[in-house]
Amino acid sequence: MRAFVFLVRLVAAQFFLLSGAQVAAAKDLLVVQVAPLSGPQGVTGRAIGAGARLYFDHVNATGGINGAKLRFVSRDDGQNPETTVRLVRESLEREAPVAFIGSVGTNNVEALVRDGALARSGTPLVGAVSGASSVTGKPSIFIVKAGYRAEISRLFQQLGQVGQKRVGLVFQKDALGDDVLAGAEAEAGKWGIELVARAGYERNTTQVEGAVESMLKANPASIFLGATTLAAVEFVRQYRERGGIATIYGLSIIDSKVLLDKLGPEVARGFAFSQVVPPESKSVLPLVREYAKLKGQGKHADLGARSMEGFIAAKVLVAALRKGAASGAEAGKAVAAIRKLDLGGYSLDFSASDRTGSTYVDFAMLGRGGQVVQ
């Protein structure tokens, strides 16, 4: 009788252990986005989040990761660095997410680096929306595109080669603008370019009137916008309304689709911009075809020109999690170990010290009728 009771208890214990293991294996993997969902940069935060959600939904619909589902949550920091730090800290302490994704803004990412909580936990921030040299290569920060300095170098090389050597610079007055200024001044001399005017505008605003006035007065052949999306929209609008004729080049962080929608094809025509992830028009790439297929399968709010960046970040994170990472620290190590990851014609490698992952930089322009011309 005693042997029978012991056997029953042993079977029951094994059953509950097995059940517990299955529950643990099936536990949701939480991924958190802390980014602006409102305010002037809300359009960027929402677009990045929409791209990430598009891929996460696909992964969940096809079985998840080792039986676990991805749970994706976006929280609004209003692009306030202190709020970014607070929300990330609260999430680390209360939820222990497996990763963060798509935080927006150089100042915001710099604040996370200074705070140190992210690095101490080992939890990765994948697809941080900044290419500034002040954040690339920092612990737990992984950027899935080329840095701003690479963009500026390629642009100034192109301008020098075609003889457009009188350049005006418009920048946001913050860490983003500091990096753009430093990069522009470093590259100008290499290509015989003269920076004939430098004009800043206040961070997280669209108050660009002073910058417009400066550029009209200096009359450069080209203007480079180291600006965010809605500030760029307002600058182009006011500059063109006042008769400005310079070719305007925008940093990759400017959402060209939003600019086109808000300005219309006639005003937006001739706006040139750098691309650091493949555009939807590059359908020859398997990555782009996959994105287009998933996008076409249903309605996904807030998908825009910047959403591919969020989609890529999500693919990188999923590739790391499929290696068995089940905690933030494990995920951070798995992302850092990525070498020559081909996402379908777009490759990433985090072996370099700056961890930008990619050196891809291309250019395009809005042509007649709003068509994108490569």
Automatic annotation (TrEMBL):
CDD domains membership: PBP1_ABC_ligand_binding-like (cd06326)
Residues of the signal peptide: 1-26
InterPro entries assigned: Leu-bd, Peripla_BP_I
Keyword Signal tagged: yes
Domain Leucine-binding protein positions: 34-366
Assigned keywords, A-Z: Signal
Listed Pfam families: Peripla_BP_6
SUPFAM superfamilies xref list: Periplasmic binding protein-like I (SSF53822)
Similarity-based family: Belongs to the leucine-binding protein family.
Protein name according to UniProt: ABC transporter substrate-binding protein
Organism in which the protein naturally occurs: Azonexus hydrophilus
Lineage: Bacteria, Pseudomonadati, Pseudomonadota, Betaproteobacteria, Rhodocyclales
